[in-house]
Every structure is written in C-alpha cells, then in structure tokens.
Amino acid sequence: MGKVAGRSPAGWRAALLAGTWLVHFLGAFGTGRAELTCRACLAAGKPPRGLLVVPAWPGRGGEERRFPAAAKVTREEPTGPPDPSASPARPGPAGAPLRGTALAPPGRRGEEGSPAGRAPRRRRRRSPAARRRARGVPAERDPPGREAAAASPEQPQGRATRFRPEELKLTSTAFALAGDSAHNQAMVHWSGHNSSVILILTKLYDYNLGSITESSLWRSTDYGTTYEKLNDKVGLKTILSYLYVCPTNKRKIMLLTDLEIESSLLISSDEGATYQKYRLNFYIQSLLFHPKQEDWILAYSQDQKLYSSVEFGRRWQLLQEGVAPNRFYWSVMGSSKEPDLVHLEAKTVDGHAQYITCRMQNCTEATRSKPFPGYIDPDSLIVQDDYVFVQLTSGGRPHYYVSYRRNAFAQMKLPKYSLPKDMHVISTDENQVFAAVQEWNQNDTYNLYISDTRGVYFTLALENVKSSRGLEGNVMIDLYEVAGIKGMFLANKKIDNQVKTFITYNKGRDWRLLQAPDTDLRGNPVRCLLPYCSLHLHLKVSENPYTSGNIASRDTAPSIIVASGNIGTELSDSDISMFVSSDAGNTWRQIFEEEHSVLYLDQGGVLVAMKHTSLPIRHLWLSFDEGRSWSKYSFTSIPLFVDGVLGEPGEETLIMTVFGHVSHRSEWQLVKVDYKSIFDRRCAEEDYRPWQLHSQGDACIMGAKRIYRKRKSEKKCMQGKYAGAMASEPCVCTEADFDCDYGYERHTNGQCLPAFWYNPSSLSKDCSFGQSYLNSTGYRKVVSNNCTDGVREQYTAKPQQCPGKAPRGLRIITSDGKLTADQGHNVTLMVQLEEGDVQRMIIQVDFGDGIAVSYANLSSTEDGIKHVYQNVGIFRVTVQVENSLGLDSTVLYLHVTCPLEHVHLSLPFVTTKNKEVNATAVLWPSQVGTLTYIWWFGNNTEPLVTLEGSITFTFSVEGMNTITVQVSAGNTILQDTKTIAVYERFQSLRLSFSPNLDEYNPDIPEWRRDISRVIKRALVEATSISSRHILVAVLPGLPTSAELFILPYQGATGENKRTAEDLEQISEILIHKLNQNLVQFELKPGVRVLVHAAHLSAAPLVDLTPSHSGSAMLMLLSVVFVGLAVFVIYKFKRKIPGINVYAQMQNEKDQEMVSPVSQRESMPNVPQSELMSLEQLVDEKLDTRPIGSISIAAETQSTKEIPTYVNV
Predict the structure, then answer these.
(1) For the whole model, what pTM was predicted?
(2) Which residues pair with residue 845 across a beta bridge?
C-alpha cells in the first residue's frame, strides 16, 4: 500500500514562508514541543537551524487536518529521532521527535540566482508593500487601506478590512539562552494544563560531521520568564540528541543521548527537575508510547529489532527481530481486547514480509498469531483505529485487503476498472475509510474514494485531486478536512491542466467552487464570476520551504478558516494573499496582501497574525472580530529574527513564546507574550450571539441543523472554555443525504444506476437458500449523516430472501495468483464462485496426480485447499461444483517444478569440419519441470530456442567456436558455455593411469581441469612436441581416464598445417613414450602417476557431398580396403596396441558423438535447419502433452558434469 497517509495531529500547523517557520500550537494540545531553526544564521552562511513540531498526545479539540501521504499518522504512530539534515515531515504522536528541517546543508547554499549563504526563494510578483520596501519605505509601514474606521463591529462583506494605525504594546518579557549562540537547533516542550514548566533542548548540529557536537538543557518554572541551565544535572559531558514526553503523563520526560558518544536514556518523573541515567545495549531509532498505559513503550533499534518496556524505559526486553520500520502498532482500545497486544510486520527467514501479532512481554513462535494467511508486500501493514490494511501483489497488480474490528480479511472493492497502481489510506474516522487512489492513467493526481463501514466497498468521491512529492519523496495529497465541522473538506482538483479549489459539506457527495470575495482589501469590487473565476487556496505546506501554502481551522472555532491563496481561473503561486471565512467557507474576505501566519487565541476569539519576512520584526496584528479589523501591537522593543512561535497548550491559551535571534551571532532570544492584559473581563452570556451553520443557505449539514454561539465582535471579553454547539436537531432525509452505492454511478438526471461492469445480483452470491441479504437500492446513506424519516426508507437497502441459484462463474486459482508450485511444498488452491447456494452444494477437486477430495459446502474451503505434489510436471486440476439446480466446473493447469540448481553443457572438445555434433544440456536435478532452452553459437546475435535439451549442428569453418546454452525454469535462468575446436583431421588417443590416481580423484570438474593441465605438461616434457598439437581432457568417473587429442596446428608464419602423415608421426612418438612408461607426473610428494596409452583413432577429411561419381567412390573404397590390409599387416608387425584407423573410416556415418548420457527415445536430435528462432517459437502451436515431464537421465558412472567426446 506504499506509504499511507493520515491526518495531522490536532492543532498542528507549521509553515516556512519567506525563510521563517511559524508554529501554531495554540488551544489544541495538552503539551507543546517544537524543534526550531535559527533563520538569522542563514544570512551569515551558518548551517541552517530546523523547526519541527512534536505535539503531545493529540486530542479532538482544536484539530486541524492535512493529508500528506507520507506515513500513517494515528494515535499509535511510532515516533523517531529527527534527522537534523533531513526535510520537515509531518508530525507524529505525542512525546516523539520527528525529522528535521527542510533547509539544505551549507554545501547547497549559493545556488544560481540566490545569494551565497541564503536558501533560494521562489520568484513571485511583489505586493505593493514589497515594492514600497524596495523604494526604501520601512518594512513594517502600514499597508494601504489601514486607516481607522468607525463602522459597525459586524462589518458587512462589502466593506474593506480595517487596520488601526496606532501602535499598542503587549505585556512581554525576554530571556537569552546565554552561551548557546553557536547552537543551531532547539527542541521545546511546554506541558500546559496549569503547568508553568517549559523545557528547551538546544543543540549544535555539525553538518560536515553529520552529528551533534554540543547540547544544553534549559528549564523554566514560570511560563518562560526565566530559565535554568541543567547541564550539570544530566552530566557536563553528556550530549543530548532528543527529548520525549509521555503522552499520558506530561510529568514524565525522557532524554536520549547522542548515539555517536553513548547509548543511554535519562528519565525524569518530576517534569525535568531531576534525572536518572540508564545505559542501553541497543541504539534507539524511534519510540512508540502506549495510548493508555504511561509506562509502556516500544523501541525500534537501528538493526531492525523491536524492544518493549513496562517501566518507562528503565528495563527493556527484545520483542521481535526483523521488524519493518514504522510498521509496529499498539492494539487500539475498543478493537483489540488485549491492551498489551502488538501488531507488527516482520521478515521471515526467506525474506518475505508477514503480519503477526503477539503480547509485548511474550512474543515467542508459539504465542504469535498470523491474522493474514500467507505473505504480504513489504512495508504495507497499517493498523489504524478499527481497521487493519495489507497489500499483496500478484500478476503485476496490487491487491488491497482490510480487516474491520479484527475480523477476517476481505479484499477491498474499488470500481472494477479503476486498476490502482498506488493507494494511500487518508482517514479512518467515524467508521469509514477515506482513501486516495492513483489509477492506471494518472501521474500527478489521485482519485478520492470513500468506503462503507467495513472498509470493503468503495465509491468515488472526487476525481483528479492534485498531488505532489514532499522533500523526502513522500506523496502529498491536496486535501484538507476542516476542523469542527463534520463532513467538510477542501480539495484542489486538476481540470484541463488547471488546479481549482472545491469544497464539500457532505463528505464528498457534492462539490462546488469557492465564491471569491466581493471586495478586495481596500474595498474595491472584485469582478469574479463562477464558474470562470473563483477563490483558490493552498491546502498544504509546500515542499519548497520558501514558498507559501497555509490553511488553519480549529474545533473550538468551527466557523473560522484562514488560508493563503489567490483569485482567478486557477490556483497560482504568485499574487498570494491571506483570506478568512467567518461562516464556514460560504463567503471569504481578504485580510492581507502578503503571506502571514495566523494563530488562534482564546478559542478563536482572537486572531494573531505575524508577517513572513526575512527581516527582523517587533510587531504583530490582533483581530477581535474574526479578521474584519486589525490592531498593531509590539511584542518586543528590539526587532527580532523570528524562528518560531509556540503557544501555551490548553483550551484557554493566552501565553505565547516567540523564539528568535537579535542577530546571527546572538544567543537564542525567548520572548514571553502574555495576552491577558488585552481582555477587559470574562465573557458573560449576553456577550454571545447565535450562529447557524449552513451551506449556501441550506441549514441541513450532514442531516442535522446546528446552531453555535459566537462572541459579539465588539466585545473584548475572554471566552474561556469552549462549550460546543448550542443546539442540534436532525433533518428530514432527502436524496442529498444519500450517495451512490458500490457498483452504481450518478447520471445527469441525478439517479444512481448500475455501472456497465456491475451485476446487482452478485451481492447475493454468498447467500444460502433460506437466508436473507440486503438488496441495494443503488443508494447508501452518507456515513455519520444524522437525517431521519423522509426518503430514508425508500433509499435504504431492503432485506431479501436468498434465491436458489445454480452454481455459476466457478474459478480456481492459487492463493498467490501464480500458475506454478514447488515440488514437495504446500500449494493453496482457492475456489471462487460468482453465484450459487454455497451451503447446499458438493465440491469435488481432482488434483491431477491421482488424488481427489470432496467437500460438503463452499464455506469449508474459505481458507483454501492445500495439497502437496510429490512429482514435477503439468497437472490438470479439475473442480466441479453441484447443487440441486445445476453444476459448474473449471480446470487449472498447474506447473509443479523444483528449483534448477546446475546446468552442464555436454559437448566434445574437438570435432571435424562439416560433421554433425550433438550438444546436450544436462540438468541437476534432472526432473525440474517445464523448461526453455536458448542456444547461442559464436558471435550470432539471434539465438535458437527449443523445448528439447539436445540439438545437433555442424561447423563448416575450422577454428575455435563457443556454444552457450541458457535454461529457463520459471524465474530462474542458468547457463553454461563450452568451446569446441573444429579441424579437417585430428587423431585422438585414450589414456589410462596407474591405479593410485583413483585414490585422489574427487570426480569434480575443477580437479579434472587441473589434472588435464598436469598431464599435458608431462607429455610435452617427455616428447618435446609443441603444446599447440596437444589437447588433454580428463573424463568423468572411475577408473580415471583421459582423451588425448593430436591437432594439426598451423603456426603464425602461415606454414602449412600438419598432414595426416605428420599427425601419424606425432602419434607414434607419443605412443612410443607412453609404452616405455616415460610419461609420468608427481601428484603430491611421494605419489607419482604413470600415464599409459589405451586406444588411438584418427579423423581424416571425408567429403560426403553427392557430387562424387560412382567410379570415384569405387576407387575410394578400393583404396580403403588396400589401406586396411596394409594397416593390419603394419599392426601385427609393429605390435602397437589399440590402433584401428581405417575400420573406423569405413563407418563414417557412425562417427557420431559417443556420450555417456543416455537420452530417451522421445528426445530425437534436432538438425540445425529445424531449430526455431524466438519469433518462430512464439508462433508455433505447442503440443499439449506434459512437457514438464522431460528428463535427462545420466549413467551411473557419470557425474553432474558429463562431457562427451568424439571417438573416430
């Protein structure tokens, strides 16, 4: 399933715009933590400092969701130490550091078009304020249209946004982290929940060394007014790398030392006041805290081992080896009965991935469970809420499976021809799966699908949603779920190469464009007519850290959405402004012409805006009326390069800490800003007004009318705790509350009709006679829709009696989708039936090897039918299903093979020109299965392909020739190459040896090659014959023997080759020396071996062409007989043993290669003219006989290497 997307944790939002990271950490978390980067350091060419948010355990309050498809983000996500040189990634769950900054290391600075020492910025059209700065106007001068106005607090949509020119001052204090001026990273933890403790870990990350060289730990007990340095409490020489916080008990802190120095943990139970140090025998890469038990932790090591601790890291126990990174999960409370159950993806011994579950303190082989039968694709396990997802690829296509509430897995059903090539699970909220699927014809877009409750049947929600790649290669989907309003999403859809922003209020059933504001920032009318012109928003943090893209919403402020974007025909990266909606996306107002980061204070009652700029600033803007008017406040007396902003966690956020530097050489400056002074009092009931949630006037959203209360804009009172909706009542169901069911498509008339590929009756295929099933009407109610009555009865699926059906659509496949199986191993066959009474049918399975089984009903085969084949070959598996109404049958041809281990090409070393030679591929083991043989001759670029392991061929030119055979068996291809010498004539002599050689003969190819060289050297030394005339080959088997070839070598000077008489003379010399026992060699000290002659044969040039006349042939035969008589006399006269030359010549057609390999009669020699090329083999209609039964049996005296030799 690739990497799986998820929602960002509650309240998290970070944007790096114009070189500044701003972190929104307000009103959402029980704790806050961030890793900050010194932006001012960039101007001096120093290594960049990263900003990273690491929230506490997310809650539902203040939740805001984006959808990076980078990794799963859930409440049980494993968290790991950040790579300071890596790009920013999505946040993980509480208490876990994540990956570092998006800024490039120093070696990447000074790119073309950007000043040295600064990161490149996106080129865009400058706003009027930017143009004024270029002319020398101060950076923080009021923009146009900021004149004071005394309009009504509830400003109409057509009025311009008001900016108050007078400067007000906020209550603030500053503190410098003295001595840390060189530190370029900081991690911050703010406990919140009435706790005044803030912890800051600053680090010096050396980008050249790739490690942390210094660190300091700071602690504040007065909300950040002052800080105490704690280096002496953790060890002056200790270098800290990461800070963790227990998500269920913020008083428990864990510090991890730098792995380059030591592997230790420092644990605190009093919010970081004191620490105890524990050494580790492994290196932690990531941690996963339990969602309920504060002392339970899973630790993932760098060597892919998973450890567990029930004592908050004080003791560890090895849980499992070979665990996939980020593929381990705690059991989800409510779904898994055992809270100590761990879900993980582990590698098997043979390298496959498998989904297993086990107890955190007892994960032995006996106690492990394997919920999914068989293997899964690597890095595909996801456990999220009530769902478990895995992926299995077969036949080149990925298949996705889901388990709902830990029940049996079912294959996820997308529309038949979606043909996904990538899928990301985005959300599993409210018992429904939201998934992004990239289909076969998509490259940079995804389709959004939404499921039924079980996560099995998916219907299309939106096509062609824009996607992009993050800095770490992760997929980013342009989809945003608005916090506080159930079923409301924003998405950027690509239409005709233009990206447009759409909004839905009913979970994707209906989408529409955003209406642009009626006026701009100055009150001038905006001429933008739908659908040709609309408002477009950036829905994610851009992969480029210097481009904008920001959107924010909160559960505690359900009507307010703040985002950056533009007005026009499509989404653009230029002319970006800031927009706000106070009525949940129905209307929008422009609030800034430049990019700002907007934070929520006091449950959204106050908006805080800080401009993105590379210059130092000391002002920010506050709005008490949902962005209609803004007041300028100073938060520091000295301009500050802002690196990040962190708000106090909790629902009543009124304290904010600004992190920055006065200059690139200064220490970290921490400015504590207290907003309590801007409020007159706490709000009373009369300070609020009701507000009706609606969509273009329709008050029924997700089947209910909801009324919220809002603070009146003219009131500056403090809201305090968020109370939620004032009232909610269900609506009467209409057609708009129902989406099309699986297999149905909405037509232009609004009706849901079956797709061309869908058979509505197929839903009853798993139904037995006498039972009932839900017969779809073509509609299904949108999940979480609360409507009642109305058309609900009409559109809801009706129970219907299961019809009695004859079996139809029977299929049998292997569990992995392959048509092959291994000999001696279990193969699982799956029986599938499109329709039929599954409870009342008989199933008969014939495996084709003489074994057959029967089953009483189809349900008994749900886990597959297992069988073991003892022999190789092609087996015809037949399945027949029968009930009282009919029968159906199907056939599967299964190829059973065993692994091919070795191939040996059996070929003579020497042959005569124009004479047929036999080549045989000898296999080990001999019974492998269906094979294809590919033959390569010399430098030919076109191979010959056969289904037989033996061929015959001739050579018409003298010289050395190479022959290569490749044997293809399934996914395995092995080959062997041999060289053969071709001459017009040569002689050969069989050699034997003294018996002591057999004692040292291991009968392996390497030994035979070495002994051949030794024998040849002994012959040359004893006879002084040139080594070019001698070729020796030791034969396999015992007793040891060899073949000596006497060759007519032609020298480099072009002298004539040796004639038959010359070869005869050389033979006589060799035989003479051999008979006198003058040829011997020393095998090892004290072991000498004598070489003897056994038999001599000659191969003269013989012309077999039909052009010879009859008289010539008679004359030739006469000469042969005379020569034979002379030779007999010569033999008896000279008494040379074993010479029978002319008798051999009489049987020229019998001069075939004599091979110790005995071929079956069904395997004839194939002349070269009958061999097929690759194209011919494909076009040839193959015989249906079991070709898997081809075998090559070797004689008992032969070995795996069985060469053959010419004996003429």
Answers:
(1) 0.68
(2) 853, 879
Question: Taking a C-beta distance cutoff of 8 angstroms, is the pair 360, 349 a contact?
Answer: no
**Residue 1169: DSSP 8-state:** G
pLDDT tens by residue, 470-486: 777 788 899 999 988 98
d(CA 277, CA 316): 14
| DSSP 8-state secondary structure symbol assigned to residue 1193 | E
Provide the 8-state DSSP code for 1070: H
Q: 333 vs 695, which has greater pLDDT?
A: 695
The CA dihedral of 51, 56, 62, 65, to the nearest 10 degrees, is 60
Rg of the chain's alpha carbons, rounded to an integer?
42
Q: Is 1006 exposed, middle or buried (0-12, 13-18, 19+ CB in 10 A)?
A: exposed
Name 647's bridge partners.
656
CA 796 to chain centre: 39
Q: How does pLDDT run across 20-53, given as a tens digit for each residue?
A: 232 333 222 233 444 555 544 543 333 333 333 3
Comparing CA positions, the residue from 961, 964, 872 lying closest to residue 1191 is 872
Q: At what angle do helices 1005-1023 and 1060-1075 cross, to 10 degrees?
A: 100
List pLDDT tens digits, range 126-182: 444 443 333 333 334 344 333 333 333 344 444 566 777 677 889 999 999 988 888
Task: Provide DSSP, 1076-1131.
Answer: TT--EEEEETTEEEEEEEEEEEEE------TTS-HHHHHHHHHHHHHHHHHHHHHH
H or E stretch at 1060: helix 1060-1075
> Nearest-CA neighbor of 456 among 420, 415, 414?
414
3-state SS, residue 603: helix
Task: Tell me what percent of the residues of the chain surpass a pLDDT of 90.
Answer: 37
SS3 1027: helix
Under the banding of pLDDT at 50, 70 and 90, the label for residue 1143 is very low
CB neighbour list of residue 872: distance below 8 Å, 6 or more residues apart? 823, 896, 897, 898, 927, 928, 929, 1188, 1189
Query: Which residue would you say has higher pLDDT here, 435 or 71?
Result: 435
768 pLDDT band (50/70/90 cuts)?
A: low
Contact 701, 695 (CB under 8 A): yes
Span 103-124, pLDDT tens digits: 222 233 233 333 223 233 333 3
- Long-range contacts of range 315-323, CB-CB < 8 Å, 24 or more positions apart? 316/280, 316/282, 317/361, 319/358, 319/360, 319/363, 320/344, 320/346, 320/356, 320/358, 320/363, 321/346, 322/346, 322/347, 322/348, 323/347
Burial of 232 (0-12, 13-18, 19+ CB in 10 A): exposed
User: How big is the CA angle at 940 (ends 936 and 942), to the nearest 5 degrees?
Assistant: 75
- Report the C-alpha dihedral over residues 451, 452, 456, 458, rounded to 10 degrees: -40
Nearest to 387 by CA among 4, 859, 781: 4
**Closest to 422 in 3D by CA, of 411, 433, 437, 434:** 437
The CA distance from 896 to 822, in Å, is 6
Question: What's residue 650's pLDDT?
Answer: 63
Q: For residue 1144, what is the enclosing H or E element?
A: helix 1141-1146
Count H helices, E strands: the chain? 9, 79
Whether 302 and 308 have beta carbons less than 8 Å apart is answered as no
Q: Which residue has the higher pLDDT, 1193 or 517?
A: 517
Q: DSSP alpha helices (H): ranges in 450-568?
A: none
What's the average model confidence in pLDDT over 850-870?
Answer: 84
- Which residue carries 């009172």 as its tokens? 717
Nearest partner of 589 among 554, 630, 540, judged by Cα: 630
Q: Which residues have C-beta within 8 Å of that of residue 1002, sequence separation ≥ 6? A: none
